[in-house]
């Protein structure tokens, strides 16, 4: 699984700090589909600098936050939450014992994992019986996949070689790893900004697109994903899918 470090990590953390309200809808998706409970122990996979971690820690008994980048995890450590444990592993390298977690949550991260088969075997091992698996990510053939392949891959400081999902492969992974047939739904997410300039800067920093400019980031996003004015905000379409399953 790809590690975010150096300029990629620095710019990613900057944009989330500077635009804390841009991804509010992502938090609503987490609450709706994961539905965390106060008594639960949850594993967050590919957590990055902890966009979801602070809220999740407020909602559960214990949160184990995993990411292959120690640099990214420093931001989560700085939250100072007593019920958060950090582990510097990618999904395909997780080694956390057996039947430990009530649920696994991952959002926008696992397209960076090339060995999804190993990841799902790890998920099945660490989840309790009937434990929930909830993954939000980019699927092949979507406008978001096109954005990544034509914009981010071209201009990102580290490149963006990834393995996007298909519904069929996700179903096969669940079948082979001991999960129920997953429910896969479209997420019509909109990221919100006060100005178009903010939108361009956010994307520029989010993906460390240092080989171009924020203005060009905005143009590419408008052309491929679409931007519309709504209730005083400029809303960027960010079409993902959510996979929900249970360990048998």
UniProtKB/TrEMBL annotation:
Single Gene Ontology MF annotation: S-adenosylmethionine-dependent methyltransferase activity
Keyword terms, alphabetized: Methyltransferase, Transferase
Gene Ontology annotations of biological process type: methylation
Transport recorded as keyword: no
Domain of life where this protein originates: Bacteria
Residue ranges occupied by any Methyltransferase type domain in the UniProt entry: 43-135
Family: Belongs to the methyltransferase superfamily.
Protein name: Methyltransferase type 11 domain-containing protein
Species this protein is from: Candidatus Uhrbacteria bacterium GW2011_GWF2_44_350
Upper lineage: Bacteria, Candidatus Uhriibacteriota
């Amino acid at each position: 699984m790809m590690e975010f470090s150096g300029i990629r990590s620095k710019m990613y953390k900057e944009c989330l700090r500077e635009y804390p309200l841009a991804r509010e809808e992502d938090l609503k998706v987490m609450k709706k589909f994961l539905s965390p409970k106060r008594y639960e122990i949850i594993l967050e996979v590919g957590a990055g600098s902890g966009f979801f971690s602070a809220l999740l820690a407020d909602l559960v008994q214990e949160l184990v936050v995993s990411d292959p980048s120690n640099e990214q995890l420093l931001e989560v450590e700085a939250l100072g939450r007593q019920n958060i444990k950090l582990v510097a592993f990618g999904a395909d390298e997780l080694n956390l014992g057996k039947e430990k977690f009530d649920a696994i949550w991952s959002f926008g991260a696992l397209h960076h994992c090339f060995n999804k088969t190993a990841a799902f075997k790890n998920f099945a091992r660490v989840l309790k019986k009937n434990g929930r698996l909830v993954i939000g990510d980019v699927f092949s053939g979507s406008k978001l996949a096109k954005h990544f392949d034509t914009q981010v891959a071209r201009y990102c400081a580290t490149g963006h070689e990834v393995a996007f999902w298909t519904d069929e492969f996700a179903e096969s992974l669940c079948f082979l790893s001991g999960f129920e047939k997953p429910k896969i739904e479209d997420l019509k997410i909109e990221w919100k900004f006060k100005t178009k300039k903010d939108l361009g800067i956010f994307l520029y920093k989010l993906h460390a697109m240092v080989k171009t400019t924020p203005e060009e980031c905005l143009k590419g996003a408008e052309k491929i994903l679409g931007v519309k004015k709504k209730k005083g905000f400029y809303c960027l379409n960010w079409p993902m899918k959510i996979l929900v399953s249970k360990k048998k």
